[in-house]
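Tutorial handout. Part one gives the primary structure; part two gives the three-dimensional structure as C-alpha cells.
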Amino acid sequence: MELPYWQNQGGTRPIALLNESENKIFVIYHPVGEGDILYKYSSLSPISFPSTASILDDRDDFQDITSTKQSFTDEVLILYNLDHSSIGGPAWWYGTKADASPFPVELSLFNAFLIEDKVALNWRTETEINNYGFEIERAIDINDNWITIAFVDGNGNSNSTKYYDYLDYDINKAGKYYYRLKQIDNDGTFEYSDVITVQVTTPNMFYLGQNYPNPFNPTTRIDFSLPERQMVSLRVYNTLGKLVSELVDEIREPGSYSVTAIQ
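Part two.
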C-alpha cells in the first residue's frame, strides 16, 4: 500500500555499528530535511568520515532507526518506523538490507598546514577502485570561484593505504584559503571531499630569498615577502653586470610572492 507523504521535522538519532573484520565503524542516520537513510564509515584510528552513501532514499518521514545486529555486514537489516499519528494512523515498522560494499575511493584523511608562505596539502586513501586521480581546487570564497590548481594521479585499483601530497606556492596575500579534492574515476564520474581551511597571516618583516636553483638553466624562482604595501623593483643581472630581466616593477600589497626568472 502506498503511504502518504509529509515533511519530517525532527530527524533521528544516529546509530553506530562496528565491522571488526575491516576495523571500521559505521554511523547510520537520517538528517533533518533530507529524504535518505544515510551511512558514513571510517577506520577506527584515526576516525574520519569523508564520504556518504545512501541505504534508503526518497522519503522524509523515517523515524527510530535501529538495526538487527551490532556489527555492520551485508546481512544487517536496518529497521525504521513511519509514524502516522499526525494523520490519525498507526506506526508501522519496515526494514531494508544494508549495503556494506566499499566506496570506490575511500578518502580517510585530508589535511592542510602552512610551511612558511606555502600551503602543504596531504591526504590518504584506504581503498581505491578505478581512481583516475585528484583535482586540487582552491577558493578564497567558500561559496564561489573555485579554481583548479593542480592534478595528482591516482593509483587506479588498490586495497592498501596510499598517501598523497601537494605544495601550493601560489599564496600571495593574507587571508583564508579553502581547499577541496575532486576525486575522478576512470569513467569520468567524480566526488568532492570535505572543504578544509587555512589561515594565512601577513608577513611581519621584509624578506628576499635566495634564488633556486642557482646557478640556473633555464629558470629560477625567487621568493620575497612584504609586511606592508610597497613599490617593488626586482631585477636580475648577469656576472658582467648586464640587466638580464626585470621581474617586478610595480606596487605590491602585503603578502608573500614567488616569481620566476628565465635565462
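Part three, for discussion. The chain has three domains: 15-97, 105-200, 207-262. The chain is about 0% helix and 55% strand.
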